[in-house]
Every structure is written in structure tokens, then in C-alpha cells.
């Protein structure tokens, strides 16, 4: 039988003929909220009612709180959910005595699901699903972000200017990656370097565990080698003072639980060769060798500064769904957003989807598919952060992107 015999071409369905039309309907939200209300991680009386930073790690399909003392530290073999809730001013109508408006505090929520470079597919899928569930628990008021380990967004960088990324991960449903903690000691090499995102701040520094080999060394950064009985600090000849200071903090943290010798060596010193030797570079001349190694984390918008800012509108006001360019360049402002439609803002640094309060069910249902098509057609936007916000619940990051 020819390979094509017996195959049936699928019928092309109108989305209105399927239950996708129920997406964002009252029934859809009620069902999802009931599911979210059964998740213990959200039902502690604090989530959604108090400002703060809350982090959970996905462990065997479960959402497990990440200890506060570990906030800012992530394992590259894991997936995490981060909720940042902060108070913001919102305008309310006056009491009828005039046209004056009063301001009151409200909580604005940002949700990030952070995917480690070596996280398993089941962990990443659980994090994505639970992120949507958490947003539903917050009554759809949160901004959702997908975060990749290798390219943090500006908003994420502002939350964690002292980010620390470690190797290993927790046991998952389908995969097992050993965690460095609670295991017999293995040599650990930490690279300390300036945070790649300008949004993190001028003095923001990142700590990233790397392969313990001399090939991981770079003369622009500082490295901390923990071999168990001794800690070495190797300062590249071009490293920055802030990197030296951050490395000192890392060493202090490492020695709180154990008393070991610490030795700080500058690359320009001949004695720095002991670190290179220990890492397998016995035949390397440290004084004449140029040590270079690509950094494991880069700015998400690297190379994107030349892309032009654009605002697109998804609307069915004319009877059919259309996706049209509204404006491009630096003249985009708040006045270009219409309450009755959905807009996609490509800022060049990230993609934001803004949902107006009066947007139709069809517009709300189709924003994700339209965004996926947009990213597919614009290859240079494929690595950008995609975030969705609802009118009235925008955070500072969105308005900064609009007005930039």
C-alpha cells in the first residue's frame, strides 16, 4: 500500500465550533479556580493578600516552598515558580461630592516560571501549568513571565541582582539529577561576574557554578574553588572590584558552616598556578596565557537593541479577528491602548500582551496563538521574554516597556 493511502486529511474547523471558545469564559474561570483552590501551596492565607517574594520548586510534580534563606539560589536541573506581590496605587472614583479621585493601595502580582538549563520536561510542564493555576487563584490579575536560565529578563534581574545558579537538581518523575547538597564533597568551581542585564543595577553580580576545569577560567572574572579542605579565590587580571567583593561574600557563606583555610590569589601572581594545576592545567604558563571562556548567562536582549519597537492590535470590532500594526518607533504611549481590544507590544527587549477590560471572548482566547505565530515569523524575537498583563493590573515593567 502506498504510504499515503488510508490517510485522511483533517477537516478545517472554525475555532467557534470547538470548546476553545470557552477559554476565558466565566465557566472556564470557575473550573480553573476550583482546581487552584485545592493547591496547598497557594492556600496559606498569605498568597494573594500580602506583599512579598514567594518561591516554590517543582519536586516530583508537587509545588514545594523554597526556603527563604535560599532565595536567589537556583539549581540548573530544576524548575521554579516565583511570585512577586507589591503594593501599587490605584485610582478610585470620589464619593459623589465632586470629580476628585482618591488613590488606594492594591496588590500587583508578577509570576515567573524559571526553567533551569537541565530541567526535565515534566518539571518544566508542571511549572508552566501551575503558573497558570496560580494566576487563576489570583483571579487572573497577575503578569506571567517565562524565564530561561541562560537569558534573564530585565524584570527578573531586578528581583535577583545577586543571583546564584548551582549545578544539580531534585529528583523528578522521569529523570534524576543529583543535587550537590547532602552528598559526599565534590570539587565546586563558582564563577563570579557582573550581571549581564543592565536592569539589575550597576553593581549587580551573578554567581554561577561551572565545570571544575582550568578551561572554565576567564581573566575578566573571579573564581571560587571549594575543594572541601581548602577554598581558593582566583582573581582574573581584568576582574572588577565588585566581583572581588561578591567573591568574598561567597567565601564567607561557605565558611559559616565549616572552618577551612582560604587563600586569595591574583592571576598575575606566579603562585596562582596552584589553582590552574589543581584544575588539570599542569602544563599551562599562567603568566603568559590568556584565559577566556564564554559566560554561561547573557542579557536576553543581546543583539536586539537595533530592533524597532512595534505595537500590534488584535481586534474583532469589524466582525472578524484582525491583527494589525498600530504604531512603530518611540512614539508609542499609553494613549495607544484601547480598553476593548488586545495589544501585542514588541519592545525589542521583550514581548508584552496587554488585555483590555472590554476585550471580547474571541480576542482573549486567541492571544496566545497569535503570539506564537508572531514569534515564529520574527526569528530574532524567539528568545525574548513573553509576558501577559491585564488592564488595571500592570506592573512597573510593562509601563517602562511602553514608555521607553
From TrEMBL:
- List, alphabetically, the GO terms of the cellular component aspect: actin cytoskeleton; cytoplasm
Highest taxon in the source lineage: Eukaryota
GO MF terms, alphabetically ordered: actin filament binding
- Which residues belong to any copy of the Gelsolin-like domain? 62-153, 205-255, 335-367
What lineage is this protein's organism placed in?
Eukaryota, Fungi, Dikarya, Ascomycota, Pezizomycotina
Protein name per Swiss-Prot or TrEMBL: Gelsolin repeat-containing protein
What biological-process terms (Gene Ontology) are attached? actin polymerization or depolymerization
Amino acid at each position: 500500500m502506498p504510504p499515503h493511502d488510508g490517510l485522511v486529511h483533517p477537516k478545517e474547523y472554525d475555532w467557534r465550533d470547538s470548546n476553545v471558545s470557552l477559554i476565558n469564559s466565566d465557566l472556564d474561570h470557575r473550573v480553573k479556580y476550583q482546581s487552584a483552590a485545592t493547591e496547598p501551596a497557594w492556600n496559606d492565607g498569605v498568597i494573594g493578600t500580602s506583599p512579598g517574594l514567594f518561591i516554590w520548586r517543582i519536586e516530583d510534580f508537587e509545588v514545594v516552598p523554597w526556603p527563604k534563606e535560599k532565595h536567589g539560589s537556583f539549581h540548573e536541573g530544576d524548575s521554579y515558580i516565583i511570585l512577586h506581590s507589591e503594593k501599587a496605587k490605584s485610582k478610585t472614583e470620589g464619593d459623589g461630592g465632586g470629580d476628585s479621585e482618591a488613590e488606594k493601595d492594591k496588590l500587583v502580582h508578577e509570576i515567573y516560571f524559571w526553567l533551569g538549563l537541565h530541567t526535565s520536561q515534566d518539571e518544566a510542564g508542571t511549572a508552566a501549568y501551575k503558573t497558570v493555576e496560580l494566576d487563576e487563584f489570583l483571579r487572573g490579575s497577575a503578569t506571567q513571565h517565562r524565564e530561561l536560565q541562560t537569558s534573564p529578563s530585565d524584570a527578573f534581574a531586578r528581583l535577583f541582582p545577586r543571583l546564584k545558579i548551582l549545578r544539580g537538581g531534585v529528583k523528578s518523575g522521569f529523570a534524576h539529577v543529583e543535587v550537590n547538597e547532602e552528598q559526599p564533597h565534590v570539587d565546586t568551581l563558582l564563577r563570579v561576574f557582573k550581571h549581564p542585564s543592565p536592569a539589575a543595577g550597576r553593581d549587580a553580580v551573578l554567581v554561577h557554578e561551572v565545570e571544575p576545569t582550568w578551561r572554565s577560567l576567564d581573566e575578566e572574572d573571579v573564581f571560587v574553588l571549594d575543594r572541601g579542605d581548602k577554598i581558593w579565590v582566583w582573581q582574573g587580571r581584568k576582574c572588577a572590584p565588585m566581583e572581588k567583593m561578591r567573591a568574598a561574600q561567597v567565601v564567607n557563606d561557605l565558611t559559616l558552616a565549616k572552618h577551612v583555610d582560604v587563600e586569595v590569589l591574583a592571576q598575575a601572581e606566579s603562585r596562582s598556578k596552584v589553582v590552574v594545576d589543581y584544575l588539570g592545567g599542569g602544563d599551562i604558563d599562567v603568566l603568559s596565557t590568556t584565559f577566556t571562556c564564554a559566560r554561561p548567562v547573557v542579557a536576553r536582549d543581546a543583539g536586539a537593541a537595533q530592533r524597532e519597537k512595534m505595537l500590534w492590535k488584535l481586534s474583532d470590532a469589524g466582525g472578524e479577528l484582525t491583527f494589525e500594526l498600530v504604531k512603530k518607533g518611540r512614539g508609542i504611549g499609553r494613549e495607544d491602548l484601547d480598553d476593548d481590544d488586545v495589544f501585542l507590544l514588541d519592545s525589542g527587549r521583550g514581548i508584552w500582551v496587554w488585555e483590555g477590560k472590554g476585550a471580547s471572548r474571541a480576542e482573549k482566547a486567541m492571544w496566545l496563538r497569535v503570539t506564537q505565530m508572531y514569534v515564529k515569523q520574527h526569528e530574532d524575537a524567539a528568545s525574548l521574554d513573553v509576558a501577559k498583563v491585564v488592564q488595571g493590573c500592570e506592573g512597573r515593567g510593562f509601563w517602562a516597556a511602553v514608555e521607553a
